[in-house]
Amino acid sequence: MRVDPITFEVVNNALVGVAEQMAATILRTSYSTVIREMLDYSTAMFDVEGRIIAQSCRIPIHLNSMSRSLRTTLDEAIPIEEWLPGDIVVTNDPYSGGQHLPDVQTFLPVFADGELVAICGTLGHHLDIGGMRPGSYAGDAVEIYQEGLRIPPIKLFEEGKLNERLFAVIEANIRQPEMTIGDLRSQTAALEIGRDGVLELIERYGVDTFRDCMEEAIETSEARLRDKLRELPAGVYEAEYYVDDDGVIDEPIKIVTKVTIGDGTIHVDFTGTDPQRRSPINATISSCESATYFAILSILDPTIPANYGVYKPIEITAPEGSVVNAMPPAPVVGRNAITHTIVNALMLALSEIVPERITAAYYGMSNVYILSGDGAGYRKEWIFFDIEVGGGGARQTKDGLDCYSQGIHNLANTPIEMVESTYPLRFKRYEFLPDTGGTGKYRGGLGVRRDIEFLDESGTLNTQFDKFKIEPFGLFGGGPGATGRMQLNPEGPEPVELHSKTVNRTLRRGDVFSMLTQGGGGFGPAAERDGGALERDLREGKVSAEAAGKAYRQTGSGK
């Protein structure tokens, strides 16, 4: 049944508002810096079939990820008939629709007059979920069992009653229970806010209108995306891009994208992509789908509401047993090396037909670093998890953004003052890195240098970086962005170069961990760069005189 247009817009936007209210609840009540400061979480609303209807503006890589988990739960674990008022289901299983173990998802059914009408969902990246290494990033894991506690879909609350034994199991298997349990309770509190918001809408408009609006939201988004696809020339467009290595075997990993555009459809085929690795660099199908959805939506029309309908015109072929669709028991915590590379590969493939909507390659990795201490020189054992970004890719009309959370990211910067007041860490440097942006008519964004002094007696460093060997590419004559680097004690008598995927590196008081992140690729020939723009770069220290003389010597300002 077609809903009155005004009513539809009100209800549709109100559902997004409900998801945002849930997100605000998590922001206000969460414990860890990962969720409270970095904002690595998402919230969404679903219909009773598990189809996503509305979501908050949070993390792009979570696009539709919760929907696959929820639908898998309904199909294989807890049928819809077994969901009761007050139930809350929890899961983090990458092989039941999730992405990696730190991403814990919770779902709550919404009943109106005894009838199930919707489902609320939250997803949060938790500081620690157990496993071999602090922060649950085990770069030397060879199977998922080493990465942490794996939770199949199970009821955390049953008809409003807490499953205390399950909570006890979770608490007993993690290093920072006060943080993780606090964040988990934050997620469940947000679900109740979502439920109340849905019930307010139903009280005003009725169940039938509410359901009709959800169905129309799906149909509208599908139609809008199909119309956008019809604007593109039909054909086949291909590209490949690489991950440096898997941290164990020093060989690049190839990601192949073959994009076929038809009449209102798009097919992304990853056939030819390298097989899964015996290291935690793999991605599940959920991660692969989310990265693909993000790239297509950001290129075609990011204003289309990202509900179930917008994904229907997109077909994905991801061979089982490949790094984009790993099979158990492959470890998957470092899946973002794959997903960022998918996004950049799709940008490269489609640059031929929509150059005005494409950026050159951005820094291309969630630069995860985890510092932990034994607490001997502090109050107690601790874990600090953070992600640093790099330079954004340049566009057809603009320079890339410096130190910008691009692509499947949408992370906030963790405030230095808060970190220093919470952990035995001191920031020695945090600055842009000149000459890291790719040259071009439009320059790539700059990476950054961040130096952190370790102040506890002893501890460890674990990292998941990439693009230390494979450069972020430029487009249409633009130069590549700089690759990343990491060092220990860079200004000491014996500085140590660190591998991008460092595992369990011992730290002592006074050690300084230095990261230099990747730059973004340039767009267009450097010879066409505006002289005024180059002078501004020189004045602001973003490009050195020496580099300008080499790269831009053909321009008026570079002579």
Task: Work out the number of β strands.
Answer: 20
Helix content: 25-40%
Order of the strands making up the biggest sheet: 2-1-5-4-3-6-7
The helix/strand class is alpha+beta
Shape: globular
Mind describing the biggest β-sheet?
Answer: 7 strands, antiparallel
Q: How many DSSP H or I helices?
A: 12
Question: How confident overall, as mean pLDDT?
Answer: 95
- Span from first to last CA? 68 Å
Low-confidence stretches: 554-559
* SS strand fraction: 15-25%
Based on CA atoms alone, the radius of gyration comes out at: 24 Å
Number of domains: 2
3D architecture notes:
The protein contains twelve helices and 20 strands. Helix 5 packs across helix 6. Helix content is about 30%, strand content about 20%. A seven-stranded antiparallel sheet has the order 2-1-5-4-3-6-7, with helices on both faces. The chain is an alpha+beta fold and about 550 residues long. The protein is globular and about 70 Å long. The chain has two domains: about 5-225, no CATH class; about 360-559, no CATH class.
